Here is the input.
Amino acid sequence: MRTLILLRHGESAWNARNLFTGWADVDLTPWGEQQARRSGELLRAAGLLPAAAHTSVLTRAVRSAALVLEAAGLSQVPVARDWRLNERHYGALQGRDKSDVLGEYGEERFRLWRRSYDVAPPPATDTPHDPAPPPATGTPRDPAPPPATGTPRDPALPRTESLADVTARLLPYWHDHIGPDLRAGRTTLVVAHSNSLRALVAHLDGLGREELLGLNIPTAMPLRYDLDERLAPVVRGGRYLDPRAAAAAAAEVADEGHRSSRSTR
Here is the structure.
């Protein structure tokens, strides 16, 4: 049996403000830091001790992973970082209030942009939130990444992405890096983002497009998958370590856009 733990980062400053974040590199709120530490405590209480960890290169995921491992007493665990685990690029929506976008474009278009498989938001133009391309990898096991060349393995900055685009960049990393850790018997932690984790869950569970529309990943709720020798889930959908809290938090994610911005806790 192989064990995979999926975790969306803790609350970020833009989560708290109800903004589309995407590739914008924002930090955790104090509440997000607490959430990450609580996730580490849940792992320790459940006896889930990762021997390998993977994150995106975005600060909110990197810091969440560090706080989780510290709280679990596992600060020595190597953490691989790669842009292919980044959140989807939300194009022209990045930095915009979700409720404003909902009001401007309506429920159907808003839901397609947030939750469909192959519909991307309008592409970004130059904005203050447009990040520079991150390095192709920042893993301790591959400390000297190749220069960006525009190949699928290198991070040419996207102007917008659908979930299909996220899936196309994520799955090679799953097969080449996360899969080998699991096959070697290492309990493996992946700390990423709403849409990179939706793409991975869709792959693991074989979700159809209609099922994907209803898939919401809450922040800082550890999701355990036990996998067989083919890395297929023993139980479809995995199991949240705190199912009741995860269900409530997922409902809040589904309701984003229908609430206004709020201050951090």
The chain has nine helices and six strands. The chain has one domain: 2-254. The domain at 2-254 is CATH 3.40.50.1240 (Rossmann fold).
